[in-house]
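The passage that follows is intended for readers who have already worked through the single-chain material. We present the inputs for a multi-component assembly, then the predicted structure in tokenized form, and finally a short commentary. You are encouraged to pause after the input and sketch how you expect the pieces to fit together before reading on.
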Amino acid sequence: MIDSSLKEIAAALRAKTVSAVELATESLARIEAGNATINAFITVDRDGALAAARAADARLAAGNAGPLTGIPMAHKDVFCTEGVLTTCGSKMLSNFVSPYDAHVVTLLKAAGAVMVGKTNMDEFAMGSSNENSHFGPVRNPWNTDCVPGGSSGGSAAAVAARMVPIATGTDTGGSIRQPAALCGITGIKPTYGTVSRYGMIAYASSLDQGGAFARTAEDCALMLSAMTGHDPRDSTSLERDAEDYTRDLAQPLAGLRIGLPTEFFAEGMSDDVRAAVEAALAEYRKLGAVTVDVSLPNARLAIPAYYVIAPAEASSNLSRFDGVRYGHRAAEYGDLNDMYCKSRAQGFGAEVKRRILMGTYVLSHGYYDAYYIKAQKLRRLIAQDFAAAFEQCDVIAGPTSPTVAFGIGEKSNDPVQMYLSDIYTIAVNLAGLPGLAHPAGFGAGGLPVGLQLIGNYFGEARLLGVAHQFQQSTDWHARKPAV
Amino acid sequence: MSRTDWEVVIGLEVHTQLSTQSKIFSGASIAFGAEPNVQACAVDIALPGVLPVLNKGAVERAIRFGLSVGASIAPKSVFARKNYFYPDLPKGYQISQFELPVVVGGALNLLVPDGKGGAYEKRVNLTRAHLEEDAGKSLHEDFHGMTGIDLNRAGTPLLEIVSEPDMRSSAEAVAYAKQLHSLVRWIDICDGNMQEGSFRCDANVSVRPRGQEQFGTRREIKNLNSFRFLQQAIDYEIQWQIDLIEDGGKVQQATVLFDPDSGETRAMRSKEDAHDYRYFPDPDLLPLVISADWIERVKGELPELPAALSARFQNDFGLSIYDATALTASREVSQFYLDTVAAAGHASAKTCANWVMGEVAARLNKAELDITASPVSALQLAGLVQRIADNTISNAIAKKVFDALWNKEGDSADAIIDAQGLKQVTDSGAIEAIIDEVLAANQKSVEEFRAGKEKAFNALVGQCMKASKGKANPAQVNEILKKKLG
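Having made your guess, compare it with the prediction:
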């Protein structure tokens, strides 16, 4: 049943051909069977899931259920969950139980979704392969020697492996879109400010945005509709009402102008990805869309700008993990400074330390203008590029990742190569735009390729509609891994 | 060089705790004196995932302050993170304002005591005032070998008011701090409680040879929480710097602490170990945008400011700047005075001023009472002043009546004058009779006076007043006595 669409599951729940408890049990069984291999979950909350499922069944019986009531789902372990371990993939928080729920968790609970557990991730959402987790790497369900992408690798792998039909993720530089592409599922990062960041452990506050993973655009639309709306506890939350993101699903593609950034189609993209992307674009043209060339001349500066801004914010955001009030504290230390040094040296992994050091450096006296201020200027230029491009097109399309999923360990000793995996996704975060990745075929080794769609601000419903129309005439999204 | 060859340069940074109900970025209470950590919510503890939300009440108070010192209110200001590690700083950074503060410029006009019983006017310019959050407290006592952390104070809203280095003596610094203290209470943005830390001063002090344009190297004295300590610390620091330079040394920029027990300042950290705070705009908070409408509304709600009221006292009531300043030290004092004048009559404004600043202030001070708790009300005082004005009683008797009012011996000056028979004798026949008696009984003084001893006259006046139990009109006594002896 978990392999069905949300609509089908919801109908079955209403028809009482399946109960929420049965669904949760099925999900828990699939996790139990697959997690030893995939390592998608850090925490499985069996008791909590079954209790929530029973409550969902009561709601269904009472006739006040919504589209997500009784649907099993998973939260990326970056979202705080009351009473359930919230580790952020780090040793630093390996003992942390949050006393409160993140806003997104509250909303999905209220919608009746049944959380079965918390998914693995790159430590503090820093990474593109999910190899930077204190709890071990996540494996790609299509080939367990390969990475699932990151940082939301656990959520993407869990959905791809049919452990849950939907899962939350966060995307700071591509952390939803890239793993969605590498795992052959659909993932959306909405406009910055759409999903409340309250209770979402911050990596880079001005770039972090929560979003949704599902197998299809339609399911993403249903899920995202339950996750948005203004939250007064997040000052960067936009003062907009919750939206129905399914509203444009039926809209035909005739006349849709798809912008193709020439910079995205230049060198750097591997041949297998290029072939799949071209084929997907041909399919879009067949559906009535027209493609136009657009230019994002400053997009090439996105990675350097990102690796100034994100580490700068991270170096400050992660200062609260000092071993004083919660989290890891070194067992033995001398003075206060020694306690800080040892607790943080032991609690953080290598990539987190690298970014804290970079961030501390770029904010230092005498370097701030040369790095941070300059990066902010680049950020504005990149946003202006997109604004100019959207004068000529309705959505922008291109690759999500330059390659299909790479082997575990292949890039872990070369941070710059790793950073380049996000070359097509990062500019979207810098501009604050919505972005989506959907399955678009397969490349080398039979591994999935994802097409990236970028919308203008608040263009989520249209993006989801475009992807949905594509999925009506293709079946890439329906293919499932053997695992 | 002697002491007078050095010029002192002082600038103050004052942290005022804003009188909001809740913290600047969370909903927790800021009330003083609660059990440790009961007023620290998830945001104050800096749990993973929490976010700050700006308290508009704090912004409103900053606007109120800016308007009352003639500063400009920034249409857009920015909250920045000041990064450093300390156990009572839960986030590892303090949210403050750095490059773009909410209040820019402004000035305070002071009356500085000149040490010879007079006072001179002085203008101190303000650089800026910015909003920020307070840190928690580290409790080093009570925990053997450990430090206790109390986060109740973490996130308490502060307005840091920074002056230009315009002050030239500790007396000017104290006058400035007092004036600022009175102003923030006047406009109701801070309770001014210095024991509880609601008003704390940091003093930047340097000295330079008189006539030199360039400032000397400054040292910053931190956390002075009384006017007396402010004065002592600055005076000690000035002498320390002068002695050092005169002995051939050089002042090194440093942060110093004042020890009230020894009366000395000592260095806490030098410039070399100063933190690099890595300020950058807080991405969790949007720039603070203040509309012209908001500023106008706050302006409309401001009370009449002490400077304006002082000017009114000088113009309308003919008070000296000194008296007018004293009577506008707080809203309560000025209200008491205004109430007294309203009941006593405009013509007695000066007499009212003398009483409020004199007898009333002295007695309240002695009894450690606030003017709002004065046993003698403004209305009662006005009744007393009226009886002085219409010659019903003399000043000397008035003091007796005031005592009686203070001790609740009667409800009004009139009732006490009646009950105790204190009405002034102005009947010249009666006064003449008293004088005759006194002259008869004091022949010796009469002779001395006639022999040219002026003092004897005063002695006779004193005898007459005594004989009348103080009730005889002193002017009439003088006049008739002169005639009789003449």
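Commentary: The two ends of chain B are 63 Å apart (CA to CA). The CA atoms of residues 22 and 215 of chain B lie 41 Å apart. How closely did your sketch match?
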